[in-house]
Amino acid sequence: MIQYLRDWFWTYVWNPLPDMPLGEWVDEGVRWLRSEWTALFDGTEAFLGSMNDGLLEALLWMPSGVMIVLFAAIAFLARGWKLALVIGGGMFIAGWSPYWEETMETLAMVVVAASLATLLAIPIGIIASEFRAASTVVRPILDFMQTLPAFVYLLPVVMFYGIGPVPGMIATIVFSMPPGVRLTELGLRQVDHEVVEAGQAFGASPTRILARIKLPLALPTIVAGLNQVIMLALSMVVIAGMVGGGGLGGVIVSSLGRVDIAMGVNAGISVVFLAVFLDRIMHGLADRTPVARAAAITK
Amino acid sequence: MSALSVESLYKVFGKGAHQAVDDLKAGVPREELPNRVTAAVIDHNWEIATGETFVVMGLSGSGKSTLIRMLNGLIEPTAGSIWIDGVDLRSLSKKGVRELRRDKVSMVFQHFALLPHRNVLENVAFGLEIRKLPGDERMDRAREAVEMVGLGDEQDKLPAQLSGGMRQRVGLARALAADTEFLLMDEAFSALDPLIRQEMQDQLLELQAKLAKTIVFITHDLNEAMKIGDRIAICDGVVKQLGTAEEILKHPADDYVADFIADVDRSRVLTAEAVMEPVGSDTETRGLETVESGVTVNDLYGTVVASDQPLLVVNEWNEPLGVVTPRAIIKSLAPETASDAQEPQRA
Q1: Which end of chain B is more exposed for a tag (fewer CB within 10 A), N or C?
Q2: Does the interface predicted TM-score (ipTM) exceed 0.90?
């Protein structure tokens, strides 16, 4: 009797609906889009693919020895000789390992995906900072994008684009965009109200105020956002190895499959040095913004 | 014609602002308005002549910042009209308002509102940049304005490298470089140390003597108001009293104003002319030491103490106007109340 009641309660009160076919609906929608909007998907695939291939070709054009020196030189310009030493050493290790080519593949994917994410994020952030309504629409979407597990992004893009580096990059663009939008909006909103008012009081138009006052003053915050974009892009590009994205992600995925520690360590170290390199370069850029320079002079 | 005038100007914040204005016009006191509205500016009616320095004085929350922002269209009035140089501000389009700000009205801010990454010269040139002046002319005029406020040696420094007083000079130079007829100064000296503040006040007076701009100056400091202003409007939502410093000191309109002026250093406001007594027909004026009518009481002390006779007040053509006695000075320094003080009883 009690058993019966419990079953009844469980079936009809606690869990009254049958399994919802939400997943099936999305599946159908994706298939429909794929067949109706073929040109769009083929176009983006060709575009991203050619950008990635072009950059990769350039990165692999010179031997790894020359590239290592080049990376160290960039690090020197960004932060000075200490970072140059760290990056030179790190890249030397990456070049020494059997995965130099994969490291460059990953770098190319990160650079392409993060640049496109930035190109999308900054205008959206500007619009969100200027219009309250846009902000209220954008914010929950960003929350959604950020809380969704990274793996989940891979499913729809694989449905749309199949397997390869392009679906990985698209998932990366979507996954890495939110901090770029958020920090652009935040930075613009945090600009001293009185300075904006001064712009208005001298008769500047809204676009001029944006270009001459708000954007320069918000730039350090925006660059901090871009740094996060790049870091997220790097992590996602590695995950994209699961869908045939290639690069270090691919190496790591197969090392997991084979429990090959040496392989995993080699690829993992390269990821770490890439991350340090990109992160420090962005910090260097942030320090070179006019506002940050002005603040540094007076310290 | 007046350069700037406002007519039954109201600004009420919150929902139901227009209803609140109607209520206020119908005589409902400000305190009885619903809580969701804040009446910042109530029924302002005044006009300013070209070249006048008009000071709006009030405590925080008295609507003075709102008022000054309505004068260049940064805040839209709830009701009433504003005339600048014969143009109805509220009839202008957004673009028209921007042009007005660019060409006629500039502003100085309490916290300077400078761009931290631009040096002094580039900050000063900001208004001219908006006006799309060519680079050379822009820099020449900016340099001129920087010299005018005495910052010629600092023109390549960043705002953060300057003291508060210097930063506000940059703010002032930026407004002067725009060479507009009107100058709005929003608590411009309030964030400065007392000594620097006096220096800035003196500099403003000096510049104003040369440039004769039409200035609206906002402050919460009555001493400052009386030092700078040709006329002063004491505000608390409504205009409590409008007049020259002397008028306000001698005849405060109500207890609110009387409370304010209790703290004023009257000796720095009242002039010899204001405290003098008429020359009696039997008074011998020959041989008396003379003082000019515009000298403040504060500057008379030494002369009065040194002389055992009254001082003769003369105008600029050396004609006698009246006499100043120690008694008249002491009497002038005692604060007056709204009602006439009672004569002390003789013992």
Answers
A1: C
A2: no
